[in-house]
């Protein structure tokens, strides 16, 4: 059994563009259509090439909190897991839906034999989730899942587009209470 601290220490925080990461799988903060958008979604589609959109069309969308997988095409990552975060409303359901995005993505990764995964800060861009609320949910959900799935090796990276986001992740993963 690993301690919570060992699990916390195994998480990576990388500042930069998620599309450049050499991991098995990157997670896309998509919208329910799965047909592309702005922010990280646009960046992933641009880097992966038009075949990604073609495959996404066959998936017929995705509900908020759920996750679906495609190939990564021209990305270094072999797979993309598309998950749809909640649009921030300030209601308690936001938290559940955001946690579900992380949990369902991790489950899908495990089901597909993926051993490294990178997440963007889901819902914290256009969808308006404050970083101060979203990051603790992301970190806690991932740590809880890793604790429950210690028999499965999955390296998790939090991809942070800017320095401020990276600082918040570092603070939260360093805190003993998560
Ligand atoms: P959402 O609609 O879920 O809010 P956004 O793409 O607008 O999704 O933003 C989610 C997060 O992804 C934001 O923190 C944003 O800064 C970040 N982001 C945007 N582009 C990239 C990228 N290329 N790599 C990593 N993170 C990114």
Query: How does CATH name the architecture?
Result: 3-Layer(aba) Sandwich
- Broad shape: globular
Compute the number of structural domains.
1
Unreliably modeled segments: none
Structural class: alpha/beta
Radius of gyration: 15 Å
Elements, N to C (H/E) = HEEHHEEHEHEH
Total number of β-strand segments? 6
Distance between the termini: 18 Å
* CATH superfamily descriptor: Leucine Aminopeptidase, subunit E, domain 1
Q: What share of residues is helical? A: 40-55%
In CATH, the topology is named Leucine Aminopeptidase, subunit E, domain 1
Briefly say what this structure is:
This protein is 42% helix and 17% strand.
How would you describe this structure to a colleague?
With 178 residues, the chain is of the alpha/beta class. The chain has a single domain (7-172), classed as Leucine Aminopeptidase, subunit E, domain 1. It is 42% helix and 17% strand. It is built from six helices and six strands. It has helices at residues 4-10, 39-48, 50-57, 92-111, 131-148, 163-174; strands spanning 12-15, 25-30, 67-71, 79-84, 116-119, 155-160. A six-stranded mixed beta sheet has the order 1-6-5-2-4-3, sandwiched between helices. A hairpin with a 7-residue loop joins strand 3 and strand 4. The longest helix has 20 residues, at 92-111. The radius of gyration is 15 Å and the shape is globular. The model has no long low-confidence stretch (mean pLDDT 97). Adenosine-5'-diphosphate is lined by residues 17-19, 29, 39-41, 43, 85, 120-127, 159, 161, 165. Adenosine-5'-diphosphate (ADP) binds next to helix 2.
